[in-house]
Write a structure and sequence with these properties.
mainly alpha; about 150 residues; about 60% helix; elongated; 7 helices
């Protein structure tokens, strides 16, 4: 058996070479935007959370809200519909971010607390560093990407 330069992964998790491919986006089925915005499994680093989570969802929410106003919905109804459409993707991204620092994704349900829930979780998810190495939710996405970059450079 050929030795692997990667650490081992807990039973039932994909092999690290698969995870490296995921970090690079080599498996589009697993790294697609629907999986990022709708799925609850895996880990994402802070940068992905801010770029593909918060900023993208805010921009999409703004666009949707403007379109709903143009379609003659009143502003209050437009805001409620936009929030409803984008709440689940925010919960999914937040759950993956919490997995990165080895917390249960159930904490993402704090987004449903009116007023302060989403703000609190955005601050926590956007500032707490992820667990280094493998945790119960998978391999460190930053480590997988770094290893893939090193191996592709050779």
């Amino acid at each position: 058996m050929e030795p692997t330069p990667f650490p081992t992964v807990p039973a039932g998790r994909p092999a690290l070479d698969e995870l490296t491919a995921l970090a690079l986006g080599a498996d589009p089925e697993r790294t697609s935007l629907p999986r990022l915005y709708l799925g609850l499994k895996g880990r994402i680093p802070r940068r992905t959370f801010w770029l593909h989570g918060v900023l993208a969802l805010l921009l999409m929410g703004l666009v949707l809200n403007v379109l709903l106003v143009i379609a003659n919905f009143d502003k209050d109804t437009s805001a409620k519909l936009a929030n409803l459409v984008f709440l689940w993707p925010l919960v999914a991204i937040s759950a993956k971010r919490q997995h990165d620092f080895n917390f249960s994704g159930w904490w993402a349900l704090i987004h449903f607390v009116p007023g302060v829930g989403s703000l609190f979780l955005m601050l926590v998810d956007g500032s707490v560093p992820g667990t280094r190495g493998v945790n119960r939710f998978g391999v460190d996405p930053r480590e997988a990407l770094a290893r893939a970059r090193i191996s592709s450079a050779h």
